[in-house]
User: What shape does this take?
Amino acid sequence: MIKIIKKLSIFLLILALIATAAVYGVLTLSLPELSGKTSVTLIDNEVALERDSLGHAVITAKSREDAAFALGYAHGQDRFFQMDLLRRNSAGELSELFGKAALNLDKKMRFHQFRKRSQQILKQLPNTHQDILKSYSEGVNLAVSHMPYSSFEYLLTGAKRNPWLPEDSLLVIFSMYLDLQENSFNRDLSLTYINEKFGPEMVRFLTQPSEFQAALDGSEFDLIETDIPNIKSELLSFTSHQIEEPLDIGSNNWAVTGSLTASGKALLADDMHLGLAVPIIWYRTQLNYSDNDEEHQITGVSLPGAPAVVVGTNGKVAWGFTNAYIDTVDWIELDSNYKTNTVIEKIVTPEQVYDYSLEVSEFGPVKHIGGKKYALKWVAHQDYAVDMELLNLEQATNVEDALSIAKTIGIPVQNMLVTDDKGNAAWQATGAIPARTLPSAIAITPDRFDVTWNQDAQDVPFVLNPEHGRLWTANSRVVSVEQDKRYGNGGYALGARAEQIKQRLFEKEQFNEQDFYDIQLDNKALFLKPWQELLLKTLKLSPDTYQQDIKLVENWGECACADSVGYTLVRKYRSAIIDKLFSPVEAQLQTEGLSLSPIKRDLEPAAWQLINSFTDDWLPSTAASWPDLLTTTYQEMKKDLLVKHTGSENGSLLELNWGKVNELNIQHDGSLLELNWGKVNELNIQHPFSKQIPLLSKLLDMPKAPAFGDSFMPAVQGKGFGASERLFVQPGAEESAILTLPGGQSGHPLSPYYRAGYADYIKQAKTPLLPGEILHRIEFHPK
Assistant: This one.
């Protein structure tokens, strides 16, 4: 019997080895060729695509069209499946890949009809931009044809690789609209419903200005506490509803003029905050081409699926973006008799074709909330929402030139910071902005609709060379209080992060790239200090019971540091208190599929007003008093943390300090060793497939890393969220510029470029912006 078991074990081991070899064999066959020569009819002159040790795509061409072809080829080799997901996501065509499981998501996206919009907009583009999109598409499709074996994603889904179309590049930009602005129209819907159910007093209370304001002109909204509205007593019986934490989708960027650098050149920093996944969203790119007998070199990051360098430098000018969050949405409330139409959208799955009925009006698609009809007017639905004018930034010669070009760029509206080699620096609201001048966070009636919605605004605000030489944005209000009336609040971030960046910029009178890197990694918890004080005050009501807790909170380090248990307790306590206080409102919203999540940042002043007032009108029926509420919320929060991160609600908080655990050689016994912030907020960048098939995690995911940041501070970082790039550059001094990315160039797990550069990102090393020694070269020759 033992011999049989032994032979069976050996047989199964051999089978496993054969299966592993087969998998690796198939994966190897789908690896792209990185060196060689090929003749094609799709270019006018010779083109070279080179790569260094990081896989940095270095393209040399005689024209912009040929450069677009080579960039498309590089993207097609390294990122085709990612590009496919981006176009299918915005078009509502994921069901073709994933079947019925993606049907509801596709219905949600078909609400916007982005495929039709992309086809219409493509026809309106200038011929030069249409030609570039066509050349790019031809490069993508040639790369795919040179890889006869599909990548593993297509093998697992059984789907085909459809050709890339010029309109698909516009769909990629629409995917960015969904990432960056979807929260804005959800915000307005929630506020409209709150206004309907609780009255305008509640809206004012929940969205009152905070003390954290960092507009570029220094203007501030008056901090006048609104009256606390009454809330129905029956709503106070609701159990606590968790209000989902909104991701800080946006970015940090800041700059100083040449008066604050040793070189006299202006210095720019940019880190765009997005969901982090494998492969990463950005792609290291350098374009070298000629135009009108002038040589151009543009270095930065491109977005696979589009032929432009999104953020970067051309040697004379450097540019970067953060999401602006000005108001680009209006909901129009329609009465029951208002004329609407029904459009049938065909959603294809491998099994069958589904009909999705979409109700549309003259204003836009229609949604039903609380028995009423609301039409969405969103800038992404306008003809001016998307174009390829970003390409023109590549040839800007100075800041003023860049500001002029940027006024016509069709992208989700951004805070663009731009610097030049002469020392100039500027901010400008850049992207699609409706010309209407009376934005509203509450749904309006048709008679209040402004027809200038259909026009792209020309009165875009900007700031050029401020006297103190410093510029900063971090998704909070950048415009003045007066300008805010014109542009509106589309879901500004709380100004704590911007205020902290501003504070750091005024600490010195001269800066270099490392100084800017230090600011970007600043994880000081200045914003949470009042919450730490509140938690300490609460715990000290029962000092014997919470002796260990008090020590940890007192020694929290005032930072989102990996070894801090106190930070974890303070951070989670704040969220738990806000969830508890506003559960009555959240419960009502959830009945209509809405949430306070889009305005959770705004709740800070209202939360403190309730805590300081101790008003019985908002005291949940489950709490005996406000001190009881503050204490029991901590107890519940602590219990949830223990269960989630240790599997047990018991354990000594003293053991939460990982440094002491190691020092005293205490063994992990399933208690509370995992609650230091480094573990609780551990960075875990995953491939979409490993989330569904955990066995693939080791092959597909980036190595996990201890937390090094959080929200409300410059070092923004969540478990799968954070700085999607870190860029520091002086135009004209690119040899000292830095660019780190949280992953590699290639989406192929066996590629040497799959994880290349990730270690530098985690170690916060200074990876050069410019490409290094060339290791691979592909030459394209015209037939």
Notes: The chain is about 35% helix and 15% strand.
